[in-house]
Amino acid sequence: MTNRDRFLRACRCQPVDRPPIWLMRQAGRVLPEYRALKEKHSFLELVRTPEWAMEVTLQPIRRFDFDAAILFSDILVIPEALGQPYEFVEGGGIEMEPLRTAAEIDALDGAAVRERLDYVPRALRLIKEALGGRTALIGFAGSPWTLANFMLQGGGAKEYVKAKALFYSDRALFDHLLRKLTDAVTEYLQMQIEAGAEAVQLFDSLGGLTTDHVFRDASARWMAEIIRALNDRVPVIVFSKGTHGNWNDLVESGAQIVGVDWTVRLSEVRARLPETVGVQGNLDPFLLTTTPEIVEAEAKLLLREMHGSLGHIFNLGHGVPPTAKLENVERLVNTVRGFV
Ligand code: CP3
Predict the structure, then answer these.
(1) Does the structure show a pLDDT above 90 at 340?
(2) Which of 42, 146, 211, 242 has its CB surrounded by the most CB atoms within 10 Å?
(3) What is the architecture, at CATH level 2, of domain 3-338?
(4) Ligand 1 centre and the CA of 74: distance in Å?
């Protein structure tokens, strides 16, 4: 069974020899070869140059032979394509003028999404060819709700309050923004699928900011619309962090795979979902900062807990922390690969 087949079969809840593994944020600061590139090029230059985006996407595949590669890019390319640019400050932090007024929301323009993000399909085609059918290729986008939080806040924040404030105070304007984001994300994912993405993940990383009866109107219904428009062309993974009261909303979104953070027991989530919906996760990312022995022991606990369940994609409960140690990532991959 090739890595690609193992991943795609697990996405469809079909039997596999062992769970496929990839890690959110598998490319990036944890890899010395990435840090070396960053000495000479900015993050955005790497993202916008198809040859560099390919190189960075392939770095973790070369080193760890993951079952799936994820496009090297960022969720903030969508605000940028709509007319709200961003920059990363070296050493951490996002620089972005927040959306402040109804007029600014109204001025976001989805007409140029294809043209402005033209470097993404070019990168995907290069990556697909380089992977040669051995490794699956995952595309991604931020969920409309998560993007709206970054755009209204003007980057990352300790406390995300602006999107919630808009949701409760002016639902029509909130919906107007989320409609634009939903249309842009749909088109962007369609572009990625046309260019060879074999699965796509929606990062609803800020889903857990909502209270449980609000999650559907703030986030899930927009993701459901995107997934419906993609028409089952490829499996869709929805990673919605911290939304533990909302398994039904997530299933109703039409996701084939539900990504799960590390604060819940994965086998219990598995048991609550229909057999046709898989789960992805959910090792505590912090473990990658400890020791290989701890990583192996904890990974084995999770593997044993999930043994015999169909549709488990092994991953962390969130991204690889920049302080992760390479020997821990290596031990994790070997533990999963050696598990029968
Ligand atoms: O998973 C992968 O390896 C694919 C690449 C990827 C990146 N960002 C690269 C990146 C993906 C899938 C993302 C998604 C993303 N981006 C999310 C959703 C997932 C999550 O972590 O919750 C969010 C919220 C963003 C927005 C974003 N981009 C933040 C908050 C930051 C950190 C800012 C900082 O520097 O502290 C980024 C930067 C970013 N995106 C880096 C990478 C490798 C680090 C850039 C660098 O310093 O080299």
Answers:
(1) no
(2) 146
(3) Alpha-Beta Barrel (3.20)
(4) 6
